[in-house]
Amino acid sequence: MLKVLNLEAMSTVTNKTAPSQQPQQSNAKPGLRKPVFTKVELLKPETIGHTLVAKVLTSNPVLQKGRSVSQHLRQTRISECLIGDETGTILFTARNDQVDLLKPGTTVILRNARIDMFKGSMRLAVDKWGRIEVTEPANFVVKEDNNLSLVEYELVNVQEDGGAPPECCSMWQEQLVSFTERWKCKQIDLLVVEKISRLKAGQKI
């Protein structure tokens, strides 16, 4: 009976001292990364993840449809809004509920915005992964004589002398060769059909 009591006492002491020997795990969560704000003049074609503060200068509707066709369809609204900061301006494509936020005279914060290309010029946009916030009026004066959407870009393939052709060029060449081979095969088939027709008509080939 005495041994049993001693074992129970030892197990009690062991259970009390065990937690102190285990390393303590930290429950602290990593802090959120602060957004890096950029300026309009630094925007480049087909880039993403932009956060900036801009003033809305104008808003012009370019598309509005849906309700007149059916009451069950959601109304689609698209407006081109000219926004800018102290470094320049750019056209922003506002869709649906965004149109109500980007009213002329308001200041907005665009988070996780992206640059789309439309007919060779840049358009700023915010999709479902971004956010638009109306904020306090900014104290800067918009530089309206530097409209980035008026700059036209041309997509070109840069190839150094002696280098391998770009992948798109090789794909285009393969498609061209394939098309030429199909055209030749079709031409041969037509020639065979023409010979057979002449033989049936009793003409010399």
UniProtKB/TrEMBL annotation:
InterPro entries the record matches: NA-bd_OB-fold, OB_Ssb-like
Domain spans labelled Single-stranded DNA binding protein Ssb-like OB fold: 43-134
One protein family per Pfam: OB_Ssb-like
CDD domains: SoSSB_OBF (cd04491)
The protein, known as: Single-stranded DNA binding protein Ssb-like OB fold domain-containing protein
Organism this protein belongs to: Prunus dulcis
Taxonomic classification: Eukaryota, Viridiplantae, Streptophyta, Embryophyta, Tracheophyta
